[in-house]
Specification:
Layout lengths: L6 E2 L1 H11 L3 H4 L6 H11 L4 E2 H14 L3 H21 L4 H8 L3 H15 L4 H7 L14 H8 L23 H13 L7 H48 L25 H23 L12 E2 L19 H6 L11 E10 L2 H14 L3 E2 L7 E3 L2 E9 L3 H9 L3 E9 L7 E10 L1
Parallel strand pairs: 4-9
Antiparallel strand pairs: 1-2, 3-8, 4-8, 5-7, 6-7, 7-9
Helix pairs in contact: 3-10, 4-5, 4-11, 5-7, 7-8
């Protein structure tokens, strides 16, 4: 594919200046610097320049701007000029990138930002159409005619919105503007000046600056680690010098003490009897302390319901009858310290949580399910979504059956002291993202 070079004429520059709608009163500080600005414009935009030469001039201005306001203004002017050429010359994104000698992805980003600024309500369309990841992207050859056809644009679009400050920025007010104008008159008309070399040197400076930052960070990291190590060693020595170990000194011990001999006339049997009595007393005390006549039962835990037959036959009297788990596993005994109201929890795993939430929301409307307190159904929590619901008793069994078919899920039965509204019971649903 042969790509023709774009040559820009004086009429193109006049049309571009009218298109960006510059506020000369503000730019030239109420006309005081109008002569300097017109001189800049006439020297910068010359009849017969190619688009690649214009991009080199914009890059020269970007490098020589020196201060932030001038650099931002020249960068804004360059992006508007690329957008103007794309609209007025009816070329594709790929052709524009080639003739301007700019990366395709960078040109696509500039055009996307421009169109989103003009048509903010169509941001999704422009984000998709100007997404160019590599040279094989299907959006590589998009043109302005194709955009007009897709969006049915029948009017001339403006360069920017009325709130844009760039057309009115007082760039000629800075002293650096005069310095830049003098350099430009000297450099751009110097036959020995190579704009491509300036661009490559600027890129090399950025790379060297980046490498220097990396080395500086590594040096600071090494110095920090070395400082911490030296500080720890010094503090360890300091603590060691302050620690003293003392051995116990039993100066009060009277080493002259001796055990008295066995009292005369005391039989050995009497001594044994007293020792036996002491042992019996100690044993009795231990039995009294640790003996507990109360028969203990483990607290009731959650029950996994593996079939619909395990659900109560009548939810109106569900709290009055024992579950199958209690009858078979607990022998009919129940620990009621955690309440006697039943609630149900559904633990669901889903690799498409948004689709599961949509299906679950349909069920909430169908069975007149309401939220508990201020907890919105489907509240996002770390790892998934959470539902805290009140389900009418007459729909409970059918609702749970439908929920279990949404995705891979397990149904639990639990006990609670919380009172439910009349005719309703509480159901928790947790959708865990896989």
């Amino acid at each position: 594919m042969v790509i023709k070079e774009i040559i820009l004429e004086e009429s193109d520059f006049k049309q571009f200046r009218s298109w960006i709608d510059l506020n000369l009163e503000a730019l030239t500080w109420q006309g005081r610097n109008e002569e300097q600005f017109e001189e800049f414009w006439s020297l910068f935009f010359i009849n017969g320049l190619s688009l690649e030469q214009m991009m080199s001039r914009f890059h020269y201005a970007y490098v020589k701007g020196e201060i932030g306001p001038l650099i931002s203004w020249f960068n804004w002017l360059k992006e508007k000029f690329l957008s103007f050429v794309f609209i007025s010359k009816d070329i594709s994104l790929y052709e524009l990138a080639k003739v301007s000698n700019y990366p395709v992805s960078e040109v696509a980003t500039i055009l996307r930002n421009f169109f989103i600024e003009v048509f903010p309500h169509k941001d999704e369309y422009f984000n998709t159409r100007f997404q160019v990841g590599n040279i094989s992207s299907e959006n590589l050859y998009i043109s302005y005619d194709e955009v007009k056809k897709d969006l049915d644009i029948k009017m001339d679009i403006k360069s920017s919105n009325p709130d844009d400050v760039m057309p009115s920025m007082e760039v000629t007010l800075y002293k650096e503007w005069d310095i830049f104008l003098s350099k430009m008159k000297k450099d751009l008309y110097n036959p020995t000046l190579n704009l491509k070399k300036i661009r490559s040197n600027a890129s090399l400076k950025k790379q060297l600056f980046f490498v220097g930052e990396i080395f500086a960070l590594l040096l600071l990291g090494i110095l920090f680690i070395y400082g911490v190590k030296v500080g720890n060693e010094w503090y360890e020595k300091y603590l060691t010098s302050k620690i003293r170990i003392y051995e116990p000194q039993f100066l009060w011990l009277d080493k002259s003490l001796k055990f008295k001999p066995k009292a005369a006339g005391m039989a050995a049997e009497d001594l044994k009897l007293k020792v036996k009595n002491l042992e019996e007393i100690a044993t009795a005390d231990e039995e009294e302390v640790f003996y507990d006549e109360e028969e203990r039962y483990d607290p009731e835990s959650e029950v996994i319901l593996t079939s619909w037959d395990a659900l109560p036959r009548d939810f109106d009297v569900a709290d009055l009858e024992q579950s199958e788990f209690e009858e078979q596993k607990k022998g009919g005994y129940r620990d009621t310290r955690y309440g006697n109201k039943k609630v149900y929890r559904v633990m669901m795993k889903s690799d498409q949580p948004n689709l599961s939430k949509d299906k679950l929301n349909i069920l909430l409307d169908r069975y007149r399910v309401t939220q508990v307190d201020q907890v919105k159904p489907g509240t996002a929590v770390p790892g998934g979504s959470y539902y805290n619901l009140h389900v009418p008793l007459k729909y409970l069994k059918e609702f749970l059956a439908q929920v279990m078919e949404v995705d891979d899920a397990i149904l639990f039965e639990s006990r609670t002291r919380t009172r439910n509204p009349p005719g309703k019971t509480k159901v928790f649903v947790w959708i865990k993202e896989i």
